[in-house]
Prior knowledge:
Elements: E1 5-9, H1 13-24, E2 27-33, E3 51-58, E4 61-67, E5 85-89, H2 92-103, E6 107-113, E7 121-125, E8 131-136
Parallel strand pairs: 1-4, 5-8
Antiparallel strand pairs: 2-3, 3-4, 6-7, 7-8
Amino acid sequence: MKIVTSLSFNGQCREAFEFYAKVLGGKITAAFPYGEGPPGMPADPKIKDWLMHCWMDVGDQSIMGADMDKPWAPNIDKPKNGFDVTLHTDDVVEAKRWFDELSAGGKTGMPFGETFWSPGYGSLIDKFGIPWMVSTQPQAGWQPKAAG
């Protein structure tokens, strides 16, 4: 089984996924615009270039996305809440780079730094309105500096 997060955008899906692919080293394997849908599928000209389906692989993980218009997703223009895309790594330098790049143009929730549970953790909302948590997994025997 694989659980895949699907993110909704309002016309920024392609830009967001190209950004995520660059930051995370991912590969976009599908990006289907509404204007290239099956014959007979109505596509309002204003959304013909929006993506109805986007898929990106990062290592053995994946993330999906699509652009949604207000009639399909009435709250699409509201802040996202109730979820975070969470990245985990054993490398605090990699985690910090992800955090810095993803937070550029967005809003920091919790600045990246050591916590009592992690040698490097931070939360943010990126420039596309998507909430992220970036976490470094502690190595065996790790203790926070304040405790050591």
